[in-house]
Amino acid sequence: MKFFIDTANLEQIKEAQDLGILDGVTTNPSLMAKEGITGQQNILDHYVNICEISDGDVSAEVISTDFEGMVREGEILAALHPNIVVKIPMVKDGIKALKYFSDKGIKTNCTLIFTAGQALLAAKAGATYVSPFIGRLDDIGYDGMELIAQIRAIFDNYMFETEILAASVRNTMHVIRCAEVGSDVMTGPLSSILGLLKHPLTESGLAQFLADHAKGNK
Ligand code: G3P
User: Fold this and answer.
1) Per-residue pLDDT at 66
2) Is 60 touching ligand 1 by the criterion CB < 6 Å?
């Protein structure tokens, strides 16, 4: 499973990249605003800064919701750096934009996916990635992981090349469950990745090894 980090924070992207396990970055307008990045040029510059840290795909989201606007914005974003993936919302014109970019060989990520039908439609339009939001489904009493499993079954039935990018990952258990059900990619906060490191027996075991080594070397 590929690991993406879901943030626009350059320090956190660098920390994950330095671990050597990062495969890409996803952002959205809320994450950019959270970092205080506003104004079109600053936003474009920030995407370039992210691409200079990460080796992998970097999702950059369009703001327009009409076909012409999405194409205009997406082309500007795609021209910024070869690693840019144009992130398109799941709306009717978005499907047309996915097809347009797919035909031009530009990578896309269809965001705000909450049903298997939406994922199927985006895959039919040639999306590179679909982003089902598992945490937001869990928040309202649905099982986000069931949606990942359902999309996995559909994509496997027809051998769609579109990759499932589990988004709105909130914690380490989400990461592990995504791997169990066969998500191609997960994108989560740095904490969800670093949580994979932890077990109290690892910590106490290491402390014991180091203490025993120190005793034997007195
Ligand atoms: O990639 C989409 C993701 O950022 C949404 O996460 O935590 O705002 O539901 P969240």
Assistant:
1) 98
2) no
